[in-house]
Amino acid sequence: MRSEALSSATTGSRQRADVKRHSNAVLIAGCLVNLVASVPTWVQAAPVKKAAPSANGKPQTKSQAPVPIDPDEAVYARIAQYRKVAEQIQVDGDSKDWAEMPTVKGAQFPLKPGKVVDEGPAEPRLRIKRAGIAVRDYDLLVMVQTVQPPTQEDWAFLVLVSLGTEYSDFRINFAFDQPHTLDVLKHSDGAIETQYRIPLSELQVAVGDCVEARIPFDTLARYLPPEMMTALADADIRPWIRVTPFTLNVKTSKYVDAGPAVAGYRLITKRYSLDPPSPSASVPAIPILLPVAGRWFVYEAPYTGTHKGRWAYDLQICDERGLNASTINPERNEDYWTWEQPVYAPITSWIVSAERRNPDHPPGTIDWSLLNQANSITLDIGHDVWLTLGHFRQDSISPDVTAGAAVAKGTLLGSIGDSGTSKFPHMHLELSSGLSRSTIVPFTFKRVRVSLNPQPDPWSRDLKIWRPTVGYFVESLEPWR
């Protein structure tokens, strides 16, 4: 999943915990695991039809080939199925209503203790067992179930909500006997921009064997900025929503658990594109293979953040909690899942340049004095197009990767670090062309599995070509080994 805001939490009537947010702690809003145990039957190939009898009355021996199922159509069928189930959900604290909805198991291991995380299993009962969401026409339903049923006296519950932007867009801190709080978050770093108090009557929250919440869109419209509300309400702009729940121990003012981050398409009757609109480009996109193995999260897109004026993407690894590291508020590069991940040549090409000597720096902030000082490799992939891969770890680039050398597809190039203008370990990809390398060249990924959540995921699609989009997970279907 990415950076998220964690700066305060509303508790019960006796206490309110304020926790400093670290911009590199949490993904937008999040990753998932164990969503389903296997590929659902609705995405299996169509059954083989029986052969028509021959003239002698015996069946023909030649069987009919399975009819391929369009991956988008399979997802639309799932949307229709879950829409009917979601309409029957009652916000009463009873998790039985979610038996036929896709819910996600919590992380197998506790959060690593840290400045804002409880030490050890101080409150194991507050660990999140599973979570689910339903994005309906008029509201957002959230269900969170902990190891033991929560109590209103010593337990706090909050959710980060992402519309697919670089950071979460807003956070709701649920209370039981005082107003809830809604924090609108800055897009620059995820910190709180504005805080509102929402009367208890405007949000429906029930506590039983789980916590259920109903968040009406018309209530959010009274508080959220118009542009955020437009994205929240318009499926053509943002076809899905991601929610990351947290539990807080009010006795220690520290977090007990985070995630799983849960993303889902909108369960509405209107048919909409499963991918939001992409930036326009004056030249056709060039398809390339992912240069990394495994499942990766797209967290920064062209023309945003550090990519202003550039068609570039940033990738990182996130776990099922929606965290890009083993804890909240990580202080070491080694705590990030992306650190030292291998990078491969996605195409047979020529090495234009390779910089390997720049040191890695501690995570947490972007040092603009290090602009153009990332360890990187530039490949000439043909037709006057160069591919640049950035933020390698110092001295991790293979000695054979030198200017002028040929490199075969699948060759190990190096491992990911945190060099240059980087907030935390990640992989930067960018294409360029022209004499000054200033021509913007868009690109797509070919032969990939695209998901809203880490696999298995009922929303996943195996696609021949996909234009990367922030907020999605992507995995190459062409193994490097």
Brief digest:
Helix content is 6%, strand content 30%. The protein is mostly beta strands. Strands 13, 14, 15, 17, 18, 19, 20, 22, 23, 24, 25 and 26 form a 12-stranded mixed β-sheet that branches. Strands 4, 5, 6, 7, 10, 11 and 12 form a 7-stranded antiparallel β-sheet that branches.
Q: What's the layout of helices and strands?
A:
Blueprint (H helix, E strand, L loop, with lengths): L70 H16 L17 E2 L22 E8 L3 E8 L8 E8 L7 E5 L5 E6 L6 E7 L5 E4 L3 E6 H4 L5 H8 L6 E10 L4 E5 L3 E4 L20 E3 L6 E6 L11 E5 L25 E3 L4 E7 L20 E7 L2 E6 L15 E2 L4 E4 L11 E7 L5 E2 L2 E9 L9 E6 L6 E4 L5
Parallel strand pairs: 13-24
Antiparallel strand pairs: 1-2, 2-3, 3-9, 4-5, 4-10, 5-6, 6-7, 8-9, 10-11, 10-12, 14-15, 14-26, 15-22, 16-21, 17-18, 17-20, 18-19, 19-22, 22-23, 24-25, 24-26
Please name the defining characteristics of this protein.
disordered N terminus, Glucose Permease (Domain IIA), 7-stranded antiparallel beta sheet, Immunoglobulin-like, mainly beta, 2 domains, 12-stranded mixed beta sheet, 30% strand, 26 strands, globular, 481 residues
Structural commentary:
β18 and β19 form a beta hairpin. This protein has helices spanning 71-86, 217-220, 226-233, and strands spanning 104-105, 128-135, 139-146, 155-162, 170-174, 180-185, 192-198, 204-207, 211-216, 240-249, 254-258, 262-265, 286-288, 295-300, 312-316, 342-344, 349-355, 376-382, 385-390, 406-407, 412-415, 427-433, 439-440, 443-451, 461-466, 473-476. The chain contains three helices and 26 strands. With 481 residues, it is mainly beta. It folds into two domains: 75-265, Sandwich (Immunoglobulin-like); 286-476, Glucose Permease (Domain IIA) (Distorted Sandwich), CATH 2.70.70.10. It starts with 70 loop residues before the first helix and ends in a 5-residue tail after the last strand. Helices cover 6% and strands 30% of the residues. The chain is globular. Strands 13, 14, 15, 17, 18, 19, 20, 22, 23, 24, 25 and 26 form a twelve-stranded mixed beta sheet that branches. Strands 4, 5, 6, 7, 10, 11 and 12 form a seven-stranded antiparallel beta sheet that branches. Strands 1-2-3-9-8 form a five-stranded antiparallel beta sheet.
